[in-house]
Design goal:
The chain is of the alpha/beta class and about 260 residues long. It has helices spanning about 15-25, 45-55, 65-70, 80-95, 100-105, 135-145, 230-240, 245-255, and strands at about 1-5, 30-35, 60, 110-115, 115-120, 155, 160-165, 175, 185, 190-195, 210-215, 220-225. This is Metallophosphoesterase.
Length: about 260
């Protein structure tokens, strides 16, 4: 099986379409969306409908923190970043139908596809939305994940970075930064934690969309970077005429 792992789409229609097309062209036969379907971007209803269609077709979708915010928007605060996120969540909530909000509200926080555990944040208390962004947290995530029978691999989103952690000969985890498009062997005799990056809002200075493709027949993992119509996605944000902050558009263009 070739499993396409897509996370943090953030209402970015153009990036999602590009990644799905790329994955299908490279032989993906199962799709998993790892949360944060919405938030920040201008096309939440489109993205949620695509997720609903994937579930109807037998594929896998789990929830993230921005999906929860869209169901029940957080109150704004006096702190700029938090108040902008709250503003975006409220706007997103208003764009979604009652059916789409119900879909988001009932998404599971984890799913298992074969021996692979999928979670938006850490498998250790997924509801706490903890970032898997260092070896210590990755080890705690892996410990929780491997309590599920047969699990040797756990894949997460949330951090908007593409990173792989693995257990070597010692007790701790080793961190590996992959090269896009280069297959990495991930044999199940070791244990692995991967963060698959963000489809709709990369934050590493490269505006191209991110996702990962896992081949479970040969146990190879390929982290992908996909060009898409960034200017169109940014223009759609600006077209909300201030309902979404202009900084959300700028973030797409610079990849930060």
């Amino acid at each position: 099986m070739k499993l396409a792992l897509l996370s943090d789409i953030h209402s970015n229609r153009q990036a999602l379409d590009a990644c799905l097309q790329h994955a299908r062209a490279h032989g993906a036969d199962h799709f998993a969306l790892l949360g944060d379907l919405v938030g920040y971007g201008a096309d939440p209803a489109y993205v949620v409908q695509q997720a609903m269609d994937l579930v109807a077709a037998g594929y896998t979708v789990i929830g993230g923190n921005h999906d929860a915010f869209a169901v029940q928007p957080p109150a704004g605060t006096d702190k700029g970043a938090h108040s902008m996120a709250a503003q975006g969540a409220l706007w997103t909530h208003e764009q979604l139908s009652a059916e789409q909000r119900s879909f988001l509200a009932h998404l599971p926080l984890t799913a298992q596809v074969g021996g692979v555990l999928l979670v938006h944040a850490s498998a250790e208390a997924p509801e706490n939305w903890r970032y898997v962004d260092n070896e210590i947290v990755a080890a705690e995530c892996l410990e929780a994940a491997t309590k599920h029978p047969g699990v040797k691999h756990v894949f997460c989103g949330h951090v908007h970075q593409q990173t792989l952690y693995y257990r070597g000969t010692g007790r701790g985890l080793m961190r590996f930064t992959p090269t896009a498009g280069v297959p990495v062997p991930v044999p199940p005799h070791r244990q692995w934690v991967g963060t698959v990056g963000s489809v709709g809002q990369p934050r590493d200075g490269d505006p191209r969309a991110m996702y990962a493709l896992l081949d479970t027949d040969h146990w190879h993992l390929r982290f992908e970077r996909v060009p898409y119509a960034v200017a169109d996605a940014a223009a759609a944000i600006l077209a909300t005429r201030g309902a979404l902050p202009a900084s959300f558009a700028h973030r797409l263009e610079v990849g930060r």
